[in-house]
Structures are given as C-alpha cells and as structure tokens.
C-alpha cells in the first residue's frame, strides 16, 4: 500500500470511528486497527490523531482554496465548502468540539486567516501598503475569528439551516467599504499600530 492510500485508509477509519465515538475518546490504536494497520504505521505518517484530522481537512478541501478567490470564485468557494462540510457533518461536528493545541479548529483558523489576508489585498490593492504587516495580519485574523465562530456554530447546530445567508453576508462584507474605510483611516504620515 503506497503512502497516499495508507493515509486515506487511516482517514476513513477515523471518520467511521467519529460516527459512533467522541473524538477525544478515540485512540491511535483504534484508528490503526480499524483499517488493519499497526500503530507504528500510523506514526510513520502522522504525529497524532489531530494531525490526521488536519490532513483530512487540508487534503479534501485543497481544490477549493486556489489563488484566484476574487469575484465569483469567492462565492463559489464558500458554496463548495459548505456543501463539503454538510456531506461530512458527523466528522466535523465531532472533531471541531476540541479547540486546543494542534486542533482542527486551529488549523482551519490559520487556513482561513491566510485566505482573508489574500482577499484583503485583492479587494484593496495598493491601499494596503499603508498598513503594517501586523495590522494586515490582525485584520485577517479578525475575519477568520468571525468566520470560524459562525461556521462552528452552524456545524454544532447540525448544519440544518441553509448556508446561503452565511455565504451572502461574507460576500457582502468583502464587497462593502468596511475594509477600505479601515485602510483609509490610517494617518497619511504612515503611523500604524506598533508591532511587538
């Protein structure tokens, strides 16, 4: 079995286990046994079960997060992401309950922060040069925190409501002058928030 197939087998085993057990109760041994592999094989590919959960998210959503997330592509990405999460509702509602170190929540937060950083640059172009890297990162983290808060609330409520409003609101936020107003509020002298 090649490396990718081994990882996929471990991923399927974890997904099956999360359908009947709390993620915190699942052991590496249980994941490995679920697909007829050893613990050593698991540790050859992943540091721990959190690393595996993060790999599942990154590998299964990689196609959604391209470098051209402007205009129509942004809304399409949000639609596809929500569809994907709904198709994997049991897994994500279980795994996202844990928010500690190395958690899937942390990995998703970081991924979306990078996406929002890119989106801020796309929607505001040269005006972003007025901001320090610290301010741009702060803005990206702000949007990521809001996005993850709303996303995890939707997931924990069983993803029953239509995510269209969620998508439309996110699109409107980036189409609105909110970011532009913030960027333009920076003093022409270049004074910005001091970075530590």
Q: Topology, please?
A:
Layout: H1 3-18, H2 28-33, H3 39-45, H4 49-61, H5 72-87, H6 89-95, H7 104-124, H8 133-156, H9 164-175, H10 178-184
Structure explained in plain terms:
This protein is an all-alpha fold and 196 residues long. It has 2 domains: 44 residues, Arc Repressor Mutant, subunit A (Orthogonal Bundle); 124 residues, no CATH class. Helices cover 66% and strands 0% of the residues. Helix 7 crosses helix 8.
Number of strands: 0
Q: Which structural class matches the secondary elements? A: mainly alpha
Name the helicity range: 55-70%
How many angstroms separate the termini?
48 Å
Low-confidence stretches: 189-193
Determine the strand fraction and express it as a percent band: under 5%
Largest sheet entry: none
Please tell me how large the radius of gyration is: 19 Å
Q: List the secondary-structure elements in sequence, H or E.
A: HHHHHHHHHH
- Rounded mean pLDDT is 85
Output the number of helix runs: 10
Q: Quick one: overall form?
A: elongated
Total domains: 2
Question: Could you write a compact summary of the structure shown?
Answer:
With 196 residues, this protein is mainly α.
How would you describe this structure in keywords?
single chain; 196 residues; mainly alpha; Arc Repressor Mutant, subunit A; 2 domains; 66% helix; elongated
């Amino acid at each position: 079995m090649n490396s990718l197939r081994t990882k996929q087998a471990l991923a399927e085993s974890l997904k099956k286990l999360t359908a009947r057990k709390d993620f915190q109760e699942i052991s590496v041994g249980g994941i490995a046994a679920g697909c007829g592999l050893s613990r050593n094989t698991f540790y050859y590919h992943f540091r721990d079960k959190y690393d595996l959960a993060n790999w599942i998210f990154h590998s299964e959503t990689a196609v959604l997060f391209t470098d051209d997330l402007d205009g129509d592509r942004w809304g399409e990405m949000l639609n596809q992401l929500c569809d994907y999460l709904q198709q994997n509702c049991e897994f994500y509602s279980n795994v996202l309950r844990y928010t500690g170190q190395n958690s899937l929540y942390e990995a998703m937060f970081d991924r979306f922060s990078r996406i929002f950083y890119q989106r801020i640059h796309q929607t505001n172009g040269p005006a972003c040069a007025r901001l320090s890297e610290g301010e741009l990162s702060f803005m990206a983290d702000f949007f990521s925190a809001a996005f993850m808060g709303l996303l995890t609330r939707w997931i924990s409520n069983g993803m029953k409501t239509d995510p269209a409003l969620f998508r439309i609101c996110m699109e409107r936020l980036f189409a609105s002058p909110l970011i532009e107003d913030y960027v333009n509020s920076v003093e022409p002298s270049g004074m910005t928030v001091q970075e530590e």
